[in-house]
Amino acid sequence: MTLEDRPVFLGVFMAVFILGFAWRGISDALAGDLETAIGTLALAIGMTALTFGVLIEVVQLRFDRVEGLIRLRRIKASGTREESFPLAELHGAEIESRRAAGSGKRRQSATHRTVLVLGADQRRVPLSRTFAQGRQAEITAEAINRWWRPVSDG
């Protein structure tokens, strides 16, 4: 089984946001305000590097019964990192949650991420470095547990 998380929405959102800054910088340059234009364009370039070099990450998770391995690959513009774990150490997938206090109508918000539970020490390996709202972490954990349980129970 292979699972993959491609943060397309975040990438598109950040690209549009950054293009707004770039457009503002170009407008300032055309209006003759070169000092502001250079600052705004430098900000757009910095945000682009931060967003696509550090924040945006494709996560690939492959469970291989033949090799008896779990392969976790993280792909960023700055490079690829891969970790492997013995499939026999898998105890399942769980959800880690965080609650943040807010103000106004949003007094609390919960964010989640999926973790693999591995080894006798029940070590938790997060699939994502970030927490997110919504049901995606739950859906991912359920898919992993559905695939894994027939092997572990049999």
UniProtKB/TrEMBL annotation:
Keywords from the named record: Membrane, Transmembrane, Transmembrane helix
Source species, domain of life: Bacteria
Transmembrane helix found in the keyword field: yes
Keyword Transmembrane carried by entry: yes
Transmembrane segments: 7-26, 38-63
Protein name: PH domain-containing protein
Organism whose genome encodes this protein: Falsiroseomonas frigidaquae
Lineage: Bacteria, Pseudomonadati, Pseudomonadota, Alphaproteobacteria, Acetobacterales
